[in-house]
Every structure is written in C-alpha cells, then in structure tokens.
Design a protein that fits this description.
Layout (H helix, E strand, L loop, with lengths): L1 H22 L9 H33 L3 H20 L7 H4 L5 H28 L3 H36 L7 H19 L5 H30 L1
Length: 233
Amino acid sequence: MKEWLLLVFMSFLPPLIYTIWIRNTEKYNREKWRTILTCFLWGASIAILAALIIEILFQIPLVASIQDYDTISFLTVIVVAPAAEEFTKPLALRLKSVRREIDEFEDGLILGAVAGLGFSATENLFYGWDFLQEGLLLFIILISIRSFGGCLLHASATALTGYGYGKTIMKHTSVLRIVPYFILAIFVHSSYNFLVSNDVIGALSGLFAALIFVTFTITLIRKKIISLDRKNR
C-alpha cells in the first residue's frame, strides 16, 4: 500500500507543479482553474487511452509487414507513438468548456501544455510501476529523471499544437492551419524519443542531450507566453 501511495505521489506531483508553473507564467487574465483541470484530466485519461488504441492499430500492419522486431520498435518509438500522442492530447482544447475560454493567443500554448502534463502524469504511473520492481532507490532516481524530461517534453510538444489551434479560433481560420504546428509537435516528440533511445551516442549522452533539448523547448514556450501576455496587457 505504501508503495502505491509513493508511486501515485511521485507520478502526479511533478506534473501538477509544472501545471501551476505554466499557468502562472501568464500574469494577466490567467486561465481559470476549472479549465486547467479539465485539460489536465483529459490528458491523464482519455488522451492516453485513445493514444494507446491508435498505437496498437498502427502496430498491426507493421508487425504483419516487417519481420525485424528492432525495426518495429524503432518505428513505434520514433513515428507511431509521437503522432498518436500529439494527436490525442490537444483534442482537450476542442471541448466546448475549454474552447470558449480561448480568447488570447497564449491560451492555446498554456492549455496545450497542461493537457500534455496530464498525459505525462499517467505515463509516469505506468513507467513508475516498472521502476518499482528495480528497488526503491532506483525507482526514485528513474521517476525523478522521467518527471523532468517526460513532463517537459509533453508540455512543450502539445503546447505547439495548442498554439496552432488557438490561432485558428482567434483568427477564425481553417483548422487545416493547425497542421504545421502538429507536425512540429511530432518532430519535437520524435527528436526527444530518438535521443533517449539512441545507442550510438550512448545512453547517458543521449539522455543528457534529451534533457537539454526539452529544457530549451519549454524555455521557448514560456518566453512566447510571456511575450504574448505582455502584448495583451
């Protein structure tokens, strides 16, 4: 029982802290907590379940056409998973209760990031369960690393699609305008996955590069939020 409580605590606390951090990046006309919670819960439940189903459906033809397990695994990590996850997470912004609250350009960035953080919380739960089997000390080390890298990845990648969607609402343009932002989100996600799973440059080197990468991307996201927020002042 204590292990389960620790698992849930370590899995959800960092994403919730990051959620507050991202939400409070905006100083003027901050997002309502009700809207923030809706996006977080969407990412933590419906988005992760829908992404899992999509990944399984896409893996079926891969398994049928490709015999090499390593190739299937590589394509799943680099292509299938990023595309599926970056599709389901930002759908939170299409909920009626969320969409009507998007009245500033930075809102899409913030709400997209929060949906991504909700997704990362449940993902931490899944990975954390495996980490627990390796012992308490290793669990704390691994879940801490994942809570930093994974959380910031999901927040920054989904914020991009959220920004694209927010712009279509603010400018009353076609939803097709979201596509470039969606592709960029997939690229960010794929790049992170490639770095953490690449054996060529070494596991530790790849992990370090991935953490630097997501630190850079989330910094850009927050700077964009601050910039847009100041314009609206």
